[in-house]
Amino acid sequence: MRFxxxxxxxxxxxxxxxxxxxxxxxxxxxxxxRSFAQMLRVDFPHTAEIFEKMAIEEDGHRRRLIDQxxxxxxxxxxxxxxxxxxxxxARKPMWLAHNLTLDQIRGEAAHMERTAEAFYLxxxxxxxDPQTRKLLGDLAAAETNHATHAQDMVDSLSTSPDAEAxxxxxxxxxxxxxxxxxxxxxMDGSVSTLAPIFATAFATQDTWTTFLVGLAASVGAGISxxxxxxxxxxxxxxxxxxxxxxxxxxxxxxxxxxxxxxxxYLIPHFWTATITAFVIVFIELWAIAWIQNKFMDTPFFRAxxxxxxxxxxxxxxxxxxxxG
Length: 324
Fold this sequence. Notes:
Helices cover about 80% and strands about 0% of the residues.
């Protein structure tokens, strides 16, 4: 018997073990689909209903496999799962699904069915026993039909009026939970740190001191914005989503916005560092305008005018104070 990192090789499995592996795989997939349905039921009921139906179909496949096992090997099914077999396809942990978009979850379902189909085809190709080959070939055909059916359900769902409404809700939720807090943080970090950083730069002409001030201002602003966003609204009434997600988005982007024009002061030459920081500030402000235009439907030139004007005023204030 051969082992690979403590796991069996697929080619070393007996016919009974292959059948047992298929039973556990079908059971796992049914549980995943039901978890998807439970996770989506409140906000996306139509998609949740589709996943419930797919779970029921997986239950049917599992029952057929159990009947086959009972007929050939008896009622005692060996305990063998995906993680026991080297090279066998894996499923993502369910906690990772909470960070997937609606379209990504639908795509994950289609991918699950395709990998299950590939498993049965490979199993049939590697089996020499005629009876086992026929059994696995039948299962491969069933999974092929199921994969096609799953893709058809995903495609029909994607073009249905209910799906369009759910997609709009998903986009709105993404904007409220991630984009809006992140944009507010990026604006605060990019603009509010301009004055202290450039005031320090022109007052001291010391790049290391300027970097330390910029680092402190960026990290401090990021922590403050993150906690403020998380504590300001739990999302239960506003529908803006998880407070910790909004806090992370706001805090991280605030820090990034400030560090963008603080990091150039690691360059020891003052004017090289300052010109580089100025170019980065210009890029940051235009990036903010682009995000406003793409996700907030703000006309690009109006957003650019507002952001660049505000940033220029803060930048000028920092330079004047530092040069005074």
